[in-house]
Every structure is written in structure tokens, then in C-alpha cells.
Amino acid sequence: RRDRILAMYAPTALLLLPFFWLVLITAGYTAILWGAGVQPLREAFVTSGSSLFTLGFSRPEQIFPVFLAFTEALIGLGLVALLISYLPSIYAAFARREAAVTMLESYAGSPASPIEMLLRYQRIQAWSRLGDMWEQWQSWFADVEESHTSIAALCFFRSPQPDRSWVTAAGCVLDAAALSLSCLEIDYEPNAPLCIRTGYLTLQHVADFFSIPYDPSPSPGDPISIDRVEFDEVCDTFTAAHLPLKGDRDQAWRDFSGWRVNYDVVLLGLAGLTVAPPARWSGDRSPDRRRPPLFRRMRSPVSKLDRE
Q: How does pLDDT run across 214-225, given as a tens digit for each residue?
């Protein structure tokens, strides 16, 4: 039920927002016109509405109230122009985001899983194409950071399919990159660490907008939400599927934990904020799916260290 309510939240809020703007502008100018001498209050209200909607059937006589009516009409026209340009921009950013999330299903399944993603690359013998994947998602992260911090409502627009989410897709790609760097004995791909860095910076910047608390410079040894048992189970799955694993599993765990610690808290915070559907190692970390404390602000991130 909560998922259905949240699914309606973003589009409903977007449609109601212009209405509330109009109500507030009308009420504000009604009070200003009434204070400027347009009497009685009913006449000030009629003049405000006529000016805002550029109907022109009522106008004041004095020069100062006429000037106020002109400014209100200008605001009304500006609001219409803003809506005409604003809504297509929102849809375009949403469409770009969801195109990549939808394409991820062919690699990582639905809901997206980093384990399934790497297993599928093993099945089709496409390790040489992992670099293209990391490069594509670097661009995706950069686009999400720009759009979701300037138009924060986009964070709450859900994917058309109920088991998809931009947050869990981001977590899937970041975990897949971290697993490939820490566990797999394959050719080093420099785009993988760049993808992780671009990803966790994006998630941190979006988290800053909603005041989700996190440590901007965590230590590689800090605890993460994934435990060693889960990691070993994944390594056993990779072994059974004949993926080329590194020999030192303890070092692989330390490497994976050192990558994951950069985005673990913000990923789970955004998953809770958006009530993301359950997905391995992201949407499934908080079974009760409580929202994070949005209004408890930590210090702003000043420096972010690269993790290797």
C-alpha cells in the first residue's frame, strides 16, 4: 500500500504545485492590493485574479495599484512559460534515466542484481565489453546528478515496472564494478574505478539535497551493510559458475569492502527515501524500509577521498 501511495506522490505533487503557486500568488497580491487602497477586500481579490490570469475585466484606478496589477500579470505569464518548458524537461530527464535502467535488465535481471550481471557476462564470454558498460554508466551517473539535484522531484518518479528503481540500478552497477575489481582475475579496466567514483559522488550529492547523513570520507575499514558470510556465498556462486576468481579471498573481501564503504550509507539512505523495491544488496538491506532521518543534517562534504 505504501508503494502505491509513493508511486502517486511525485506526479500528484507535480500537478498540484502550479495550483498552489496560483493560490499563493492570488492571496499575496490580494493582500498587497488591499493594503494599497483597493477596497473592499472582495474587490482586491477580483482585481488580483483578473490580473494574474490576464483576464482584464477588473483593474484599479490609482497608479500604484495599476503597477501592482502589471507585475502580477507578468508573474502569471512567466508561470505559464515556466510550466511549458519545465514539464518537458522533467519528462526528458526521466526518459533518459529509465532507458538505461530498462536496458540493465537484459544484463542484470529484474530486480537488478550485480551477481546476475557478472554471471551473464561469463555465460556470453563478454568480459572485454565490461569497459563499455562502466563508461556508459559514468555518463548516466553524471546525468542523474545534474537532473536530480536541480529537479529534486525526479528522485520520487518511479520506474514503470514495480521491480525497477534508479536507486537499485545504481547500486547494482556499483556493486558489480566493485566485485569485478576485488574478486575477478580479469584484465584491469580503468573505467571500473572511475565508474564507482562517479557513482558515489552522484549519490552523495543527491543525498546532500535531502540532508541524508553520511561520512564523506569513510575509512576503508569502516563497517558496511554486507557481511562476510554474504560475500563468501557470492564467491562460492562465482566458483561454481567457473568465473575467474582471485586466489586471496580475504584480500578480495577487504578490497570489496573498501569500495563499498564509499556508497553504502548513501545508497541505503536513498533506497529508504524513495521506498525502492527489494533488490540484492540495496533495496533488501532494510526489511522494514523506514525512511531515513531527512532533517538531521551532518556537516557538508568538504573532501572525498579516492579509494583504491
A: 999 999 999 999
